[in-house]
Design a protein that fits this description.
alpha/beta, 7-stranded mixed β-sheet, 5-stranded parallel β-sheet, 7 helices, 24% helix
Amino acid sequence: MNNKSTKHTKVLIIGSGPAGYTAAIYAARALLKPILVFGSEPGGQLTTTTDVENFPGFAKVVQGPWLMEEMKGQAAAVGTEMIQDHINKVDLSNKPFVATSDSGQIFTADSIIVSTGAQARWLNLESEKKFRGFGVSACATCDGFFFKDKEVAVVGGGNAAVEEAMFLTKFASKVHLIHRRDKLRAEKLLQEKLKANKKISIIWDSVVEEVLGEDEPKSVNAIKLKNVKTNRSSELKVDGLFIAIGHDPATSLFKDQLKMDNEGYLVTKPDSTITNIPGVFAAGDVKDKIFRQAVTAAGMGCMAALEAEKHLSEK
């Protein structure tokens, strides 16, 4: 299996999605002949987002998977080598950097752009999976608009959940915040704002057991709740369910090599994609837990490629 020749590149991009593809477009146009290695979900989180209304450049709604295919095609057209494989080991201790993949391919690189993204944490219910993109979402800023004058529920108890609930009151007629404990983890100031909002009701000590809805057309109409203290189940009529229990950045590959915060997000210099290792850059949701938008990820991909180009020219 390991008899493949070593592949060398000036720029190795690990991970696809808006950050990786944009980095590839810029690196390829700078004639750096980048190699982009994408895993089993090319395009990342956007491939599970159906309607995209907030990516600039499209007057009509576009589909997330289509947008990612177009970016991928654009990166390939300007000269990116695309390889479907999974990088399972990186050694950043020496130059050139070394990355090894599941297929046994060894890549050596003068610079690396990490754009492995993050995954929303889900409740892992069959019914949740079934209605994902059809009333079940992990991003209020992406999908809140579709719930104008409707009732929705948000699951979670941290800052993200409270912020999502408050954001959703711009559109929804009523927002139910469901939390498995009897107090929130969110900052006190946010909690006060939440409790002052007439559109929000908090359902304490409860978990979602099942998402209920129609098959044709696919849509959510209720959720089944269970009170963890009384074990009583109840049904709550809602048109949408937002899961806000956190994200996990895909950074385990870089443990003990790249500097991370306590949640595992890669740390970069302010206003830059530069990590603690010169020549390694991080772009997109792998380092951004604040905005998490396709357009900000793409912007960082551009920054990473330009910073990589500068790094290589100074060598």
